[in-house]
Design brief:
The structure holds two protein chains of two kinds.
Chain A lengths: L2 H30 L7 H15 L4 H25 L4 H23 L11 H21 L1 H11 L1 H6 L4 H27 L11 H11 L4 H24 L4 E2 L2 E2 L3 H19 L18
Antiparallel strand pairs in A: 1-2
Chain B lengths: L3 H36 L4 H13 L8 E5 L2 E5 L1 H26 L7 H16 L5 H30 L3 H21 L33 H18 L1 H11 L1 H6 L4 H28 L10 H11 L4 H25 L5 H14 L5 H18 L1
Antiparallel strand pairs in B: 1-2
Helix pairs in contact in B: 1-2, 1-13, 1-14, 2-12, 3-7, 3-10, 3-11, 3-12, 4-5, 4-6, 4-10, 4-11, 5-6, 5-10, 7-8, 8-10, 11-12, 11-13, 12-13
The chains are: A mainly alpha, B mainly alpha.
């Protein structure tokens, strides 16, 4: 194992962990306030698309558009689950479909000839991905707003008793979630790929959600989970680039299919090991109808 | 007391208002799609009419012939309708699959994975040289068993280790696709073809089409039959009752001596089996071999249909027809007008969101309006 190889692995780990870290922070806020959010995937996709659409001329416009659209899409999830009594998983599925359909449609229509997107400096994303979780942790566990978010996730009735509105707090948490997913999406299309390709999130939203569970609904834990999954992605892609052949027990372990499968498989194994010992926020997925 | 005729009228008004609400919601989704199409610089009216004729065969198609229905005559393309109905089949089967799990309180997001595994097993079983009736039975059994086993994995993870099924089944979906593709690439590949696919299944394991040129086979009838069998089963047997109790009130089930874990395991086994069957039918009537991406979007369509229809027979059936025919219509739309077919996914997403909204006042208000209106009409 040469040092070059190791450096490449480290760089790829970070670059594939950044979107997971950012999205998983969004997942933490959403789930801590009691909203199941499988729409992370759709939010990232929409954000990545808008970053590509608006980031052709100025990088900061792209970033702003991504965050704006992320928040908007997240608020749609809030409206559906908190105001219209829609089941959280149903709303997430619906919004993911809308995002997939809309971005595929619009990218075929407008990005048919391929586009190239300009990006804010790469280090901003690295800096954000490694400082925001710490700030999120402080926010969630050291500020009044953080306590309210966590209390809403555990026992919204008690928050209501203090005079605050659980629904409004969930909207606040979802705004944060949307902003994080916006950042993640902007990273994907602006800094990472410099273009938009259809379904470019490729399940990263779900992996981020798994990282949230892995990290026991803590920002720092979620970051650790994201780094682990990022490392698995990196290992996979580096092994494919190097092209070593690993073969034993009659299985071609270095084939692209097996390597693609590894992150999902390890995620599942990790969850099997971790999940039983943790408990999600108590009001997760609860309808808000009883509250207002 | 109200006279019975008034009661019947109120009942009728309620049905009418329910139907009106459904039409309004569909209209909302279509208007959103029309706006999307319009603002991306296409002719929305032509797009919607192409969508319609692609979905139903009514209107100008590939080879429409005049069709007489009572006093009305319209151009009708049998092939388009048959193709459209052939796409209803997998959505309906996946809808039934997701409904079974949902009745037991499980979100089976793993339907696509179970479909893939079932299709793969069926495609392998189909290459065995068996004679006609046996070949069909073996292919179906292999598909169903493989799907069931894959579904059971998720419930094991849930019951034994407390992993939420939404996460585990999503991961299992990715694993299923990659695992099957691995086996195709290593040893089970059709070497006479450039692409990654298995050998064609034997002729004895293929289903003949009713309308030449389409994929419309007996599987459509079987899926309808399976759907009705499922609801009959759920509403008339003890197993079905236990499933419902576990799904709606797990604590009550436990108190009544019904083990939730076992009932949920059973439900996921059956759910996976139906998804696997769906895969087997796709092999036997459409693709005749395992190819990459065989699951399409059927699995997620089925889940959405089950959630929207509230696992009720009419809801899931009508939802499957809507989603299946919409998908077919969108393919036709893309061929006719170069409007990208993903517009159908957009419509589906909006439909899901709009239909899942529970109007707290809506239906009652509309019903009251109808009653008041009828009273006014009667007085005059």
């Amino acid at each position: 194992m040469t040092p070059d190889w190791l450096i490449a692995l480290a760089i790829t780990t970070v670059s594939s962990a950044i979107p997971l870290i950012l999205a998983s922070q969004g997942g933490v806020f959403s789930e801590r306030s009691g909203v199941i959010n499988i729409a992370l995937e759709g939010m990232m996709l929409m954000a990545a698309f808008s970053a590509a659409a608006f980031g052709q001329r100025s990088p900061s416009m792209g970033l702003a558009a991504a965050i704006f659209v992320g928040i908007g899409f997240s608020l749609c999830h809030g409206l559906l689950t908190q105001k219209a009594g829609v089941n959280h998983v149903v709303s997430g599925l619906g919004l993911n479909l809308v995002a997939t359909g809309l971005t595929r449609f619009l990218s075929l229509r407008y990005f048919g000839d391929g586009i190239s997107v300009s990006s804010p400096p790469y280090w901003t994303y690295v800096a954000l991905a490694f400082t925001l979780p710490l700030l999120a942790h402080l926010f969630l566990f050291r500020t009044k707003a953080g306590v309210l978010i966590r209390a809403t996730g555990e026992k919204p009735e008690s928050v209501r008793a203090t005079g605050a509105s659980p629904v409004r707090i969930r909207f606040l948490a979802l705004c944060l979630c949307g902003a994080f997913c916006g950042l993640a999406g902007s990273y994907l299309s602006q800094a990472d790929a410099h273009t938009f390709s259809r379904d470019m999130t490729a399940g990263k939203g779900f992996i981020a959600l798994a990282a949230v569970v892995f990290g026991r609904w803590n920002p720092i834990g979620a970051m650790a989970g994201s780094l682990l999954f990022g490392f698995l992605y990196a290992l996979q892609s580096q092994l494919q680039i190097i092209g070593i052949r690993l073969q034993f027990l009659g299985v071609e372990w270095s084939s692209p299919q097996i390597l693609d499968m590894v992150p999902y498989f390890i995620t599942l194994l990790v969850l099997l090991g971790v999940a039983g010992k943790t408990s999600p926020p108590a009001s997760l997925g609860q309808s808000s109808e009883k509250l207002d | 007391m109200l006279p019975s005729s008034r009661l019947a009228f109120a009942e009728l008004a309620r049905y009418i208002s329910a139907a009106a609400l459904i039409l309004l919601r569909i209209a909302a989704a279509l208007i959103a799609a029309a706006m999307l199409i319009h603002f991306s610089g296409h002719d929305w009216a032509r797009a919607l009419s192409s969508l319609w004729s692609g979905a139903t065969g009514i209107g100008p198609g590939y080879s429409s012939v005049p069709y007489q229905l009572g006093p009305i005559s319209f151009p009708f393309d049998k092939l388009l309708l048959a193709q459209s109905l052939s796409r209803v089949t997998p959505v309906l089967l996946c809808g039934v699959s997701a409904s079974i799990a949902l009745r037991a309180g499980i979100f089976n997001i793993g339907v696509p994975g179970q479909l893939v595994v079932g299709a793969f097993a069926a495609a392998i079983a189909g290459t065995l040289r068996l004679s006609y009736p046996l070949s069909i039975a073996v292919v179906l059994a292999c598909g169903a068993l493989a799907g069931a086993a894959w579904g059971y994995l998720a419930v094991l993870a849930k019951v034994r280790r407390g992993v939420h099924e939404v996460i585990s089944t999503i991961l299992l979906n990715y694993i299923a696709v990659n695992l099957c593709d691995y086996f195709v690439a290593h040893g089970l590949r059709d070497l006479s073809s450039m692409s990654l696919q298995t050998r064609e299944v034997s002729a004895a394991a293929q289903l003949g089409t009713y309308v030449p040129g389409s994929d419309f086979t007996v599987s459509f009838v079987v899926s309808l039959f399976l759907a009705f069998a499922f609801w009959l089963f759920m509403d008339t047997t003890i197993w079905g009752f236990e499933t419902k109790v576990v799904g709606s009130a797990p604590e009550a089930a436990e108190a009544a001596g019904i083990p939730p874990a076992r009932v949920q395991g059973r439900a996921m086994f059956l759910s996976g089996a139906v998804a696997g069957l769906c895969g087997a039918f796709e092999i036997m009537s459409v693709h005749h071999r395992y190819v990459n991406g065989i699951a399409g979007n059927y699995g997620f369509d089925g889940i959405a249909v089950a959630l929207l229809g509230g696992t009720s027979p009419l809801g899931v059936l009508s939802g499957s027809f809507f989603f299946g025919m919409l998908g077919s219509g969108a393919s036709y739309l893309q061929i006719q007008t170069d409007i990208p077919s993903p517009v159908s996914m957009f419509i589906q997403g909006i439909v899901i969101c709009v239909f899942a909204v529970r109007f707290r006042v809506g239906r009652e208000t509309v019903a009251k309006f109808f009653v008041r209106f009828s009273r006014m009409a009667a007085l005059r």
